[in-house]
Amino acid sequence: MFFRLLAAALCIIATLSAALAQTPDLTTLARASGTPEIPGLKIIWLSPWGDVAKANSWRNIIVHQTEGGAGSAKYGAMEQAKNPTRRGVTVWVETDGTVYWAVPEDAIPTHGDGANRNDNKYIDNGPTFHQVLKNNSIGVEFAGNFPDVAKPASAEQIAAWRILVRVLQARYGIPNERVYAHNWIDYKDARYCEGCDLATLARNTAFSAKP
């Protein structure tokens, strides 16, 4: 009986090991095309990934927060999909953690304000002043801080961000130090620090990916 149980256990372990070996790692998934299923993320693909080699040369990630309520990320992403270069971003994150990939990777939405911050209030703005711009920075918008602009991201958004930022880093070869809060590079609403907690979290926990 013991040996039969041992044999059964070894068979289960071998089966699980084989299954895990066949499961692509995050970096492999992040370099894929189409609409890959990424463990831990619910992504609504309004625009699928193409060949990453043909994507825009994204060198930075800018974290935004909008004063929309629940549901506004979905609405914003759908409007972005209709007009990719409008004021907005490539990736939108709903309050429940759902991620919307809105536009093709070679589209450049209008976001940021020209990286006009130069007071070194949050970070050294020497490397960012007029350099972290819409054409080299992929934007991620977190919805839900209405009516209190100082309301932090939801637990679901934070959980999604922990994975999403790693995916973006792995796909485009963006290191930790090139993840920026919008408030770090532009003069924004003085009532709160837009994107600061999320960008800090990313810098402290995300890995440094290489292309």
Could you describe the 3D structure shown?
The protein is α/β, with parallel strands linked by helices. It has 6 helices and 6 strands. It has helices spanning 2-22, 26-30, 72-82, 155-172, 182-185, 196-205; strands spanning 43-45, 60-65, 91-93, 99-101, 137-142, 179-181. Strands 1-4-3-5-2-6 form a 6-stranded mixed β-sheet, sandwiched between helices. A hairpin with a 5-residue loop joins strand 3 and strand 4 (99-101). Helix 4 crosses helix 6 (196-205). The chain is globular. Mean pLDDT is 88; it is low at 1-22.
Q: What would the keywords be for this entry?
A:
disordered N terminus; 6 helices; 211 residues; alpha/beta; 33% helix; 6 strands; 6-stranded mixed sheet; globular
> Span from first to last CA?
52 Å
Amount of beta strand: 5-15%
Rg, Cα atoms, Å:
19 Å
Strand arrangement, largest sheet? 1-4-3-5-2-6
Poorly predicted runs of 5 or more residues: 1-22
Number of strands: 6
What is the averaged pLDDT score? 88
N-to-C order of helices and strands: HHEEHEEEHEHH
Structural class: alpha/beta
Largest sheet: 6 strands, mixed
- Distinct helical segment count: 6
Could you say which overall geometry the principal axes of the C-alpha atoms support? globular
Percentage of residues assigned to helices: 25-40%
List the helices and strands and how they pair.
Elements: H1 2-22, H2 26-30, E1 43-45, E2 60-65, H3 72-82, E3 91-93, E4 99-101, E5 137-142, H4 155-172, E6 179-181, H5 182-185, H6 196-205
Parallel strand pairs: 1-4, 2-5, 2-6, 3-5
Antiparallel strand pairs: 3-4
